[in-house]
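To illustrate the input format used throughout this study, we show a single complete record. The first block contains the structure-token representation of the backbone; no residue identities are included at this stage. The design step must infer an amino acid for every position from geometry alone.
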């Protein structure tokens, strides 16, 4: 049973930073890409960033230059460093992984439970 556990969410003021971590376990197959989605109340879920097994990152335009995704393949862990946070970044952030997609196109196969990120103005 594949499990994804997020940590590192919380509350921060505008301009602050947070780092999300995601640990994947229970995988019997090599993990391809990993990614982070977010969903704010009343808004559609959106893909914030994803990273290929080779370490190539892709970002949502609104977070480019502020967020950085990375991963530790040996430990099946992904990270999302979020800097210069804005109130509009407030959302539940979900860690995801894919066993099949590993390029600019990303389609997740498993989801974590989510971590709340709140940015106050």
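Output of the design step:
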């Amino acid at each position: 049973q594949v499990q994804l556990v997020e940590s590192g969410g919380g509350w921060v003021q505008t301009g602050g930073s947070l780092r999300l971590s995601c640990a994947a376990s229970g995988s019997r197959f090599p993990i391809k890409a990993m990614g982070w989605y977010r969903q704010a109340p009343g808004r559609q879920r959106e893909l914030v960033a994803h990273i290929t097994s080779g370490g190539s990152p892709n970002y949502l335009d609104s977070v480019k230059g502020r967020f950085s995704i990375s991963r530790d393949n040996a430990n099946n862990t992904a990270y999302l460093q979020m800097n210069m946070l804005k109130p509009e970044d407030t959302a539940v952030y979900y860690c995801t992984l894919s066993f099949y997609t590993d390029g600019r196109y990303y389609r997740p196969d498993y989801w974590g439970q989510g971590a709340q990120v709140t940015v106050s103005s």
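Structural context for interpreting the output: The chain has no helices and eleven strands. The CA atoms of residues 1 and 26 lie 5 Å apart.
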